[in-house]
TrEMBL record:
Gene3D superfamilies given in the database record: N-(1-d-carboxylethyl)-l-norvaline Dehydrogenase, domain 2, NAD(P)-binding Rossmann-like Domain
Similarity comment: family membership: Belongs to the HIBADH-related family.
UniProt keyword annotation of Cell inner membrane present: no
Organism: Camelimonas abortus
Gene: mmsB
The name this protein goes by in its record: 3-hydroxyisobutyrate dehydrogenase
EC category name: oxidoreductase
Molecular-function GO term, any one: 3-hydroxyisobutyrate dehydrogenase activity
Keywords: Branched-chain amino acid catabolism, NAD, Oxidoreductase
Domain 6-phosphogluconate dehydrogenase NADP-binding: 3-159
Reactions the enzyme catalyzes: 3-hydroxy-2-methylpropanoate + NAD(+) = 2-methyl-3-oxopropanoate + NADH + H(+)
InterPro entries: 3-OH-isobutyrate_DH-rel_CS, 6-PGluconate_DH-like_C_sf, 6PGD_dom2, 6PGDH_NADP-bd, HIBADH, HIBADH-like_NADP-bd, HIBADH-related, NAD(P)-bd_dom_sf
Domain 3-hydroxyisobutyrate dehydrogenase-like NAD-binding: 162-289
Length: 294
């Protein structure tokens, strides 16, 4: 069993740290928020307000933070304090360039490291069913795999440094684009007199088939678990989709990739969020399109 320093005990990090405690590890946690610390302490995490307090002597350091700037700041602060050879894992969703920089900082400090962003949301974090997309050396992957398995059910090594973040934003760019496409089709179908169920029955088994139809249909009825049946409460909030689409655009610019639909999806979600829908589910973009906005 390992001693783990877990930094960032928010909506995702809190339940992930709790699952590491349940798996029998000693988990020390840090967060700036007293409420997050209290919730984690109730799950058996030894908490502190300061990351620097919990890193010395830990075998593994995990960060679950809002953005790349914070990840680099926290790694920069804690790498010099860690035991030589410790494993640093960042599970936040951040830009690929910052993820690669974090790996370089870890190697320079004599540590091994992984970028290991997740999908599965808060429900998956609580249930221990997250998917981890992992970048880093094979040795680091083998060292980290048992811990990731305590927090997730599917662990995929995508390649070397930054490959986990690259896979995450490529996947979520597909999702943002496909959801808008599915919403356009359902809203157009309404105007053409087509029932939601008829379009679902055809498109869910035809060449238009995709996750945005089969698992997350943006109209009430065909998929009872989708947020459309629940007033478009998230689910996956517009602001999180927008964050990932912006990261995808940064990556495209940095890598010289041509992503016109990714750019359009980011712009549409940006306007939807600015119209006051940032906290609602991203499939609610269908209502925006129905109003003739885009
Ligand atoms: P959150 O805002 O709930 O949690 C982040 C936590 O980090 C907060 O509790 C904050 O106080 C803490 N924090 C910030 N700076 C800190 C510092 N310097 N030291 C210690 N603690 C600090 O966010 P979340 O929803 O848990 O998301 C975390 C990451 O996971 C993000 O990168 C997000 O994009 C990604 N993610 C979220 C979801 C989701 O559904 N919420 C799904 C997949 C990925």
């Amino acid at each position: 069993m390992s001693t783990i320093a877990f930094i960032g005990l928010g909506n995702m990090g809190g339940p992930m740290a709790a699952n590491l405690v349940k798996a029998g590890h000693t988990v020390r946690g840090a967060d700036l928020s007293a409420a997050a610390r209290e919730a984690a302490a109730a799950q058996g995490v030894e908490v502190s307000g300061n990351a620097a307090d919990i890193v010395p002597g830990a075998d593994v350091v995990i960060t679950m933070l809002p953005n790349g700037r914070l990840v680099l700041a926290v790694w920069g602060e804690t790498l010099p304090l860690a035991k030589k050879g410790a494993l640093f894992i960042d599970s936040s969703t951040i830009d690929v360039d910052s993820a690669r920089k974090a790996h370089e900082m870890a190697a320079a400090a004599g540590m091994i490291s992984l970028d290991a962003p997740v999908s599965g949301g808060v429900g998956g974090a609580a249930a221990g069913t997250l998917t981890f997309m992992v970048g880093g050396a094979q040795e680091a992957f083998e060292a980290g795999r048992p811990l990731l398995e305590a927090m997730g059910k599917k662990i995929v090594r995508c390649g070397d440094a930054g490959a986990g973040q690259a896979a995450k934003i490529c996947n979520n760019m597909i999702l943002g684009i496909s959801m808008i496409g599915v919403c356009e089709a359902f809203a157009m179908g309404e105007k053409l007199g087509l029932s939601h169920q008829a379009l679902f029955d055809v498109a869910s088994t035809s060449s238009g088939q995709c996750w945005s139809i089969t698992s997350y249909c943006p109209v009430p009825g065909p998929v009872p678990t989708s947020p459309a049946n629940n007033g478009y409460r998230p689910g996956f909030a517009v602001e999180l989709m927008l964050k990932d689409l912006k990261l995808a655009q940064e990556a495209a610019a940095s890598a010289g990739a041509t992503t016109p639909l990714g750019a359009a999806a980011a712009a549409i979600y940006e306007r939807f969020a600015a119209a006051g829908f940032g906290g609602t589910d991203f499939s609610g973009i269908i209502n925006y399109l129905r109003e003739g906005r885009s």
